[in-house]
Amino acid sequence: MTIPPTPNLDEDAPVFSIAIAADLAQMHPQTLRQYDRMGLVVPERTSGRVRRYSLADIAKLREISQLSEAGVSLEGILRIIELREENRILRKRMQQLEHELAEERINRQRVFAAGHGEIIAVTRGSRIRARNEIVLWEPRNVARYEDESEEDADDFR
Predict the structure, then answer these.
(1) What is the spatial distance between Cα 17 and Cα 154, in angstroms, rounded to a whole number?
(2) Alpha carbon distance 139, 119 (integer Å)
(3) What confidence tens digit (pLDDT) does each residue in 101-147 have?
């Protein structure tokens, strides 16, 4: 049995009773109860403690069924699900950090000070003691210089 197209239904919306979810996942309702007790698929509960399954839950039930048919034990399936969730969380965090890093690179402006034969990076807003020996430089396109190799970047320092 295939799930009919539901263009406006949120994948995580808990709308299916245990009987409907079992039918859609082609399982017995008692199997869904067992999976709930084990923590494999934990459906939302109504105020009256009635289980409500989402499309995501049904997809997970089908995946569990496939893994079980392939010979993976229920403990193994639980570990696979835990590792996949951990992986999903880590990927999301990595994307967030990559986004923050990209924003930081865009917003960052380098300021360099030169004097007595040295070039040093100066934090924005800090004062230099000997103004007559200092040359300040702020590149307009920081990313361009960061992509250059160290040897090529020396030409711009």
Answers:
(1) 67
(2) 15
(3) 988 877 776 666 666 666 666 666 666 665 544 445 555 544 444 44
* Structure tokens, 3: 């799930």
Q: Give the CB-side neighbour count of residue 34, counting CA atoms within 13 A.
A: 10
Mean pLDDT by 10 residues, the chain (157 residues): 65 92 96 93 93 95 94 94 94 96 76 63 63 50 48 47
* Terminal C-alpha separation, the chain: 67
For residues 122 and 113, the answer to whether their CB atoms sit within 8 Å is yes
Indicate the domain borders of the chain.
Answer: 18-100, 111-156
Q: Which residues contact 156 (CB under 8 A, 6 or more apart)?
A: 139, 145, 148
Q: Domain 18-100: give its CATH code.
A: 1.10.1660.10
What's the predicted TM-score (pTM) here? 0.56
Report the residue count for the chain.
157
